[in-house]
Predict the structure.
Amino acid sequence: MKTNLLDFDAAGLTAFFAENGEKTFRARQVLRWMHRFGQDDFDAMTDIAKSLREKLREIAEIRAPAVVSDKQSDDGTRKFLFDVGGGNAVETVFIPEDDRGTLCVSTQAGCALDCAFCSTGKQGFNRNLTVAEIIGQLWQANRALGADPSGERIISNVVLMGMGEPLANFENSVTALRLMLDDNAYGLSRRRVTVSTSGLVPVIDRLRDECPVALAVSLHAPNDGLRDELVPINRKYPLRELMAACLRYLEKAPRDFVTFEYVMLDGVNDSDACAQELLALTRNVPCKFNLIPFNPFPGSPFRRSPSQRIRRFAEILMNAGIIATTRKTRGDDIDAACGQLAGQVQDKTRRSGRRIIDVHEVRTR
Ligand code: SAH
Ligand code: SF4
């Protein structure tokens, strides 16, 4: 089988070249061709000797996941669906704004953590994405968006906030992050690359030590009782430990605050008392809040908090001196809003009963 060069960061590619008796600087050249120029054809790499190009063609390939659909929302948001084999597909969303373009990237097919309000979680977990599948989303999106390596960046920010828990696929996510940061690849600054986690405490420490980038933590509840229900991983890593991990992270982070994501669920976590409790919880942690209006999906038991409620909630945080932004719901006409990313996942973990019920429903209809 050919080696997919999209699976390597600079160090990995250098090692691969060395194993094959080739010089380090060749690896750098190929890295630039692949990532900066979006090239997947060795023959087009004109500054590389023909003999090496031929050798590469025999032993290697540059293969990103195939785009199965590419939809554009009325507000400019664009959603890509990628085939990752075995009946699984994952989604990637590009969100253009005045001063930046953000790509929201997936890291797993499905997710094992089963947060109560998340459509990806409800699908169960299938598998970790490979490095080529993670970085390939950026590679493909750059191509589709017509990125010009000598022009202004179209994708200026990347967030690992699509399907899956990036810290549960640590090695591959970090290798992909290294490529995003590498000047010979995408050259993004650490401040413009964000990992979003539901709170895998020991792995937050690893990220800090191995590849610190901006950190977003999915908080969603101000106390353990409620968070245990909404974000089940909280039963393993409760809030006290999570807050301590955030503080440790900030010692080495490229930004001096953590972003707390907080999904606004009507009547569940959106009261004034919850906001007050959040202030107490995060008192010692330099942070910003990002309030996310809940995005419904078929079968979900929650409702979105009314906008007036969200405004009031934000006001309580702001009055205490904490920056609280409310995420604009974008791309919901193409199901590209937060938590609506479903892709399609062949569920191997559990909830297989659900599929049987679906079949039953079809039969009896
Ligand atoms: N697994 C990581 C990253 C992917 S989820 C994490 O949980 O942080 C990205 C964000 O979308 C998380 O904050 C998640 O809680 C939020 N989210 C999930 N389902 C949602 C929904 N239905 N509506 C709004 N936000 C949702
Ligand atoms: Fe997984 Fe994040 Fe969804 Fe929770 S919110 S189920 S961690 S993708």
Remarks:
- Residues 3-61 form a domain with the DNA polymerase; domain 1 fold (CATH 1.10.150.530).
